[in-house]
Design a protein that fits this description.
heterotrimer; A mainly alpha; B alpha+beta; C mainly alpha; A: mainly alpha; MetI-like fold; C: mainly alpha; 13 helices; 77% helix
């Protein structure tokens, strides 16, 4: 059963990817078309996930929103990992004082519980999709940076790297051919885990009204819109939330599977 | 035999006790019971200052109604009735008004209600250091207040003001203790002292305000249900901004009364036997979208009309408000007796919209379907204040965005926090905006549509968002403001509204929605006919 | 035979303890200084006039007098370095500015709200640890099925967004069953749903970590030795493996605290509980910069305290660390 789970995760991710890249295949209707006379319908055969306050089909919107939501998750993770690589490499490769300074700096950023750092960024630059994506990226960077740094420190002492140094390979060569590929292995796992987490955080910000806004067919925006109708029309928040959870679980299953695989090998 | 008697007697005893108990706990229904603390959960923003002289917004009015009182009030027929003033008279030239105060009324700090106190209050509102917006605007024509005798106050005006009584009925001009007003503003904001049925005991910021009964209360308005002190021992005024939580708390019995009830919960509440709804639309303007006529493209009346024709408001109102809001075709709230309604001007007609836009020169369309003229796209900016517009209203804007797109309008919805929203308005960076304005009486038309309303007050705010600058309209409104003939005023205000509606400066939506929901154990709760705030003076709890 | 002096638990340990403590304190002070510096620049990074930002944004309708006062209070007219020193001075005195929206000193607002959030965080941490331990123990000792199910539960629990969990719990336990109130009420009943919302996702993470170390511990030599001595597997578990499960969990406590504070923002808002999280969110929504910065500083301080405490606790629990 344990071995099966990562495959379930991969299957779910594939489904999400199709929804992101070719939503029309799964949901041919227009996600923005309003039908006021059909508003607030409960889930039925005609509308699998029900309709929202303007009569838009929620199933269609959830599928079409996959692309936007995944993009936010990927962008935020890219920002986070990008920053983390810079700091992690600096700390791992540089002289001791640089390591000390960078690590303490990372500790500082780490001292802000993630959401708080994101909120600090948003209060400075205002709410919106772009700022919330950047905010999530910034908030997750310190965590990645610490892991990258420790990995870099390990790889730095590896025999093959010593051998390369003895052989007189250039600094750039050592970085590109030896260091990065070995760090990237753990990076891959981080990215998969990170995308799921970033989606959750970005949608939390949207739920709080600080991220994407309607009428965008984006999961977080749909949550924000459905929030007031929580007790009367539960399906407006339930289904986007379900997909957010599926994305996070799928990426985590795949990521953990990769982790175990690399540990066994 | 004995072993049967004992069980039978016990059963009888239990039955007797049970019926006795239930008889005692059955609500008697009609006789008010003294005691108990009512829990009120408000969804409005927490005031920054409990003194409505400072600033002057609706959240302040809501809570101040419990501990502050005004000179006059209004009944449901729309007539001005006595409150802290028992009678009043206007001089023949309209330049002074005498108010006779009720005798033996005391503030909760023990000081007496005198004409000097009235003078001190007006001075406080008119003092720039106080920072009053609403009250300040309402008293613009008052030059001085003098004490003719201990209980007669004379208001001296610069020009006759037909709206003075309406203004004085509002909570933003309520009367506070002159001694208390002498304290620093920071202290007075925490617990203003008034003559009301309750007094502020403690304000726990972001949580609640605790109000206690005023044992010496003696000044109910003329339309109150009883006299003497209030029945309730106190009120727990809580801040619960999330509407779903608020309703859930009401259902669970954690709170007794809520405001800002969303349409879907109103419908759900109808099905419940424990909940009672009060519909009390706010006076003043209707809830409307204002079209900024000072900048393109709405400087062209044809484009304004085209937009109105292309906006399907009725379907949106029906689908989003579940019949709890009635479509309005008026510039004024339905509680204003001199309001007029013109449904024929606001029909949904996409063909007419297309024709008008062609006539106005916006005859080409770009690839996305939006109309263009000389390279510019027909784009409209609508900043939405997430504080002022409830979610149903925000969804309504989305629907209007979709239907007006069919005619070729590109509407950009920009949800903003209150401060950024005021900023956008101040910089004239909007084409459409929905801004509520609550005021008693048709004089609100002057504030909203007189060309003087485009000039910002010292606080930076201005109310004439459609930027109407029509001399004929100005003349009508000025005349109505100084006229003492009621019939003439009604006629003048009607003409003024015709100009506004026919100029397509506004798209009326519905009344300013103001619904309260309370548990059936709360009796005697009513909304004051002045600004539709709830008054707990006659309320009692039948539990 | 006399024991070497160093072997006595008293003297040697004490001598090596002080430099470590000083280093830790120095680290804490450095981090706090860095946090204060970041927040100092945060105000100045805002596009536009910093005084405007302090008073609440472009449409705050603040008077000219208020602007002048803000400039004086924050020293905005003075050279940057002087401003910075003044700022640090105020931090040390505990003056964190005045919230524009609430018109009260930030330090007072934080003081009022700190208790609620701490209560929520501590209770949630305890509940999460309990759930995590139960889950980890069950999946570590159970068969393959238990192991798989446990793993899946842990992953799902860790992936659930707080707001979705809160909504689901409210819909289930409040609206449908009516067991618990949907908003905060005084007393323990009002704590149940908020605590569950915070504890469940956290327990997922903690359980994963605990299970790993339990498994490691069960396979280690000293457990074998204990078994060889005849101890039952239950006793082995509780007395030996558990201690090893605790170590990484304690290390995670610092991170858990941070995660709980993040979660508290959502949970306090949804359940209308007074606390730092809710104050922070409404401050962000109103662009109330001084309050946001104040809360961030206090949370950073708290985080440093917790990580220092967990380091100390680590050393107490794990004798291996004491020698280093």
């Amino acid at each position: 059963m344990r071995r099966l789970l990562p495959w379930i995760g991969i299957a779910a991710l594939l489904f999400l990817l199709i929804a992101a890249l070719a939503p029309g295949l799964l949901a041919p209707a227009d996600p923005l078309a309003i039908h006021p006379t059909q508003s607030f319908r409960a889930p039925s055969f005609a509308h699998l996930f029900g309709t929202d306050e303007s009569g838009r089909d929620i199933f269609t919107r959830v599928i079409h929103g996959t692309g936007a939501s995944l993009l936010i998750g990927v962008s935020a993770t890219a920002i986070g990992i990008g920053l983390a690589l810079v700091f992690g490499l600096l700390a791992g490769l540089g002289p001791r004082w640089l390591d000390f300074g960078t690590t303490r700096f990372l500790e500082v950023l780490f001292a802000f519980p993630g959401l708080l750092l994101a909120l600090l960024f948003i209060v400075v630059y205002g709410p919106g999709v772009v700022t919330s994506t950047i905010a999530v990226g910034l908030a997750t960077a310190p965590g990645y940076a610490r892991i990258i740094r420790s990995r870099v420190l390990v790889v730095r002492r590896a025999p093959y790297l010593e051998a390369a140094t003895v052989l007189g390979r250039s600094w750039w060569f050592r970085l590109w051919r030896h260091l990065l590929p070995n760090v990237a292995g753990s990076l891959f796992v981080l990215v998969t885990l990170g995308i799921g987490q970033s989606i959750v955080w970005a949608s939390s910000l949207s739920y709080l009204g600080l991220g994407a806004v309607p009428p965008a067919a984006e999961w977080g925006a749909m949550l924000s819109a459905g929030r007031t109708y929580l007790t009367s029309f539960w399906w407006m928040t339930f289904f986007p939330g379900l997909f957010i959870m599926i994305s996070a679980v799928a990426t985590t299953l795949v990521g953990r599977g990769l982790q175990e695989r690399s540990r066994d090998s | 035999m004995k072993h049967v008697v004992v069980p039978v007697m016990s059963i009888l005893a239990v039955a007797l006790i049970a019926t006795g108990c239930s008889a005692a706990t059955t609500p008697t229904g009609t006789k008010p019971v003294s005691g108990g603390v009512l829990v009120y959960a408000t969804g409005d923003a927490e005031p920054t200052c409990l003194d409505p002289h400072v600033g002057g917004n609706y959240p302040q009015a809501l809570v101040a109604t419990q501990y502050l009182e005004s000179l006059v009030s209004k009944n449901t027929a729309g007539e001005i009735i006595p409150w802290l003033a028992t009678k009043w008279s206007e001089s023949p030239d309209g330049l002074s008004w005498d108010f006779t105060l009720k005798k033996d009324v005391k503030f909760t700090d023990g000081t007496a209600l005198t004409a000097d106190a009235i003078a001190a209050n007006v001075a406080h509102v008119q003092d720039p250091a106080t920072g009053s917006s609403t009250g300040y605007l309402a008293l613009q024509k008052v030059t001085a207040v003098t004490a003719v005798s201990a209980d007669v106050a004379r208001f001296t005006l610069s020009t006759p003001d037909s709206a003075l009584l309406d203004s004085l009925s509002q909570p933003w001009l309520a009367i506070e203790s002159a001694t208390a007003l002498k304290r620093s503003q920071a202290v007075n904001c925490e617990s203003p002292v008034g003559t009301g049925p309750f007094a502020v005991k403690k304000w726990t910021h972001q949580q609640s305000i605790s109000l206690v009964r005023n044992a010496d209360y003696s000044s109910p308005p003329a339309d109150a249900a009883h006299s003497g002190r209030a029945y309730l021992k106190g009120i727990d005024w809580r801040f619960l901004p999330d509407s779903a939580s608020r309703y859930a708390a009401l259902q669970a019995g954690t709170v007794d009364v809520i405001d800002n009830v969303q349409p879907d919960t109103l419908v759900a509440a109808k099905r419940s036997r424990d909940l009672v709804a009060i519909d009390a639309p706010r006076p003043g303007a209707s809830n409307r979208i204002e079209l900024n006529s000072s900048i393109a493209p709405f400087d062209d009346a044809k484009v304004r009309e085209a937009f109105i024709r292309s906006a399907n408001v009725n379907d949106a109102v029906t689908s989003l408000f579940f019949g709890t809001a009635k479509r309005s075709y008026s510039a004024l709230s339905s509680v204003e007796k001199s309001g007029i309604s013109e449904p024929s001007l606001f029909g949904y007609d996409q063909k007419a919209a297309a024709k008008l836009l062609d006539e106005a020169g916006w005859s080409t369309k770009n690839a996305d379907g939006y109309r263009t003229k000389n390279g510019a796209v027909l784009e409209l900016s609508l900043p939405v204040s997430t504080n002022q517009s409830i979610p149903a209203e925000q969804s309504l804007f989305e629907q209007l965005q979709a239907t007006s797109k069919q005619a070729g309008f590109k509407v950009d919805l920009k949800p903003l926090d209150l401060s950024s929203w005021y900023g956008a308005l101040g910089k004239n960076q909007y084409n459409l905006v929905s801004a509520p304005y609550t005021k008693v009486g048709p004089d609100v038309l002057r504030i909203l549509f007189d060309s003087a309303g485009t000039k910002p007050a010292p606080s930076g705010y201005f109310a004439n968002h459609s930027q109407v600058k029509d001399p004929a309209l100005d003349a009508l409104l000025e005349k109505a403001a100084t006229s003492s003939d009621a019939a003439e005023r009604v006629s003048l205000y009607k003409q003024a509204q015709e100009i506004v509606l026919k100029g397509f400066y506004i798209l009326p939506l519905y009344d300013q929605q103001n619904h309260y929901l309370h548990r059936s154990v709360v009796k005697g709760l009513r909304a004051m006919p002045t600004v539709s705030t709830p008054t707990m003076y006659d309320s009692w709890l039948s539990r | 035979m006399a024991l070497p002096v160093g072997a006595l638990p008293g003297s040697g340990a004490r001598r090596s303890w002080v430099p470590w403590a000083l280093l830790r304190l120095g680290g804490v002070a450095f981090v706090l200084w860095a946090v204060a510096t970041v927040t100092f620049f945060a105000i100045r990074l805002i596009p536009g006039d910093p005084a405007e930002a302090i008073l609440g944004g472009p449409g705050s309708q603040a008077s000219a007098a208020a602007f002048a006062q803000a400039r004086v209070d924050y020293g905005l007219d003075q050279p940057l370095f002087v401003q910075y020193l003044q700022y640090l001075g105020r931090m040390l005195r505990g003056e964190l500015g005045t919230s524009y929206a609430l018109k009260q000193p930030v330090i007072a607002i934080v003081g009022e709200n700190l208790g609620g959030t701490l209560l929520l965080a501590v209770v949630s941490l305890i509940v999460a640890a309990a759930i995590a331990l139960a889950l980890a123990a069950w999946s570590a000792r159970g068969g393959r099925v238990a192991s798989g199910v446990g793993w899946l539960l842990e992953v799902v629990a860790a992936a659930i967004p707080h707001f979705w969990l809160a909504i689901s719990l409210i819909l289930l336990f409040s609206t449908t069953f009516g067991w618990f109130p949907p908003v905060s009420v005084p007393g323990p009943l009002g704590l149940v749903l908020p605590v569950l919302t915070l504890a469940l996702p956290l327990s997922g993470f903690l359980a994963q970590v605990m299970r790993e170390s339990i498994l490691d511990a069960m396979a280690s030599p000293f457990v074998l030795a204990a078994r060889a001595r005849g101890e039952g597997s239950g006793g082995v578990f509780w007395r030996h493996a558990l201690r090893h499960a605790a170590i990484p969990a304690i290390g995670l406590a610092g991170w858990a605290f941070g995660s709980l504070i993040s979660g508290a923002v959502v949970v306090e808002t949804i359940f209308a509980r007074p606390g730092l999280g809710r104050s922070l969110l409404s401050a962000v929504q109103q662009r109330d910069v001084p309050l946001v910065l104040g809360v961030v500083l206090v949370v950073a301080l708290g985080y440093m305290l917790v990580t220092t405490l967990t380091d100390v606790a680590d050393r107490l629990v794990d004798p291996r660390l004491r020698a280093s």
